[in-house]
Amino acid sequence: MTGRVVVLSTVGSAGDAERIAQALVEQGHAACVNVVPGVLSFYRWKGETARDSEWLMVMKTTAARFEALREALVEMHPYEVPEVVELPIERGHAPYLEWIDASVGA
């Protein structure tokens, strides 16, 4: 394990994705947020199957910054129950991993 993580979340509009991504980077919670348009999500919600177009946010940060990122993301997120999933980065290009650290003040 490298101590760095990828965090995934989806939102329902490009505007929300851009607003959240910019804030997370400016606040030092994420080194980088990729916004991926065109995600088609199928899920269960309140007993029904739903289908929605969404934007996927792929955030890179450190494990130590995850909780602060999660709190900020949930506060800004328009969904009642936002997706916040942390995936460990097991290996990576050392200069990139060091850049993550430097970007979030690790």
Please, how many domains?
A: 1
β-strand number:
4
User: Could you say which structural class the secondary elements and strand pairing correspond to?
Assistant: alpha+beta
Strand order of the largest sheet: 2-3-1-4
Q: Using the coordinates shown, work out and report the CATH topology.
A: Alpha-Beta Plaits
Order of helices and strands: EHEEHEH
Cα(first) to Cα(last) distance is: 16 Å
Coarse shape = elongated
Radius of gyration: 14 Å
Number of helices: 3
Strand content: 35-45%
Main sheet overview = 4 strands, antiparallel
Mean pLDDT across all amino acids: 97
Fraction of residues in helices?
Answer: 25-40%
Question: What are the low-pLDDT stretches, counting only 5+ consecutive residues below 50?
Answer: none
CATH classification class: Alpha Beta
Describe the structure.
The chain has about 110 residues and is of the alpha+beta class. The chain has one domain (about 5-105): Alpha-Beta Plaits (2-Layer Sandwich). It is built from 3 helices and 4 strands, in the order E-H-E-E-H-E-H. It has helices spanning about 15-25, 65-75, 95-105, and strands spanning about 5-10, 30-45, 50-60, 85-90. The longest helix is centred in the N-terminal third of the chain and has 13 residues, at about 15-25.
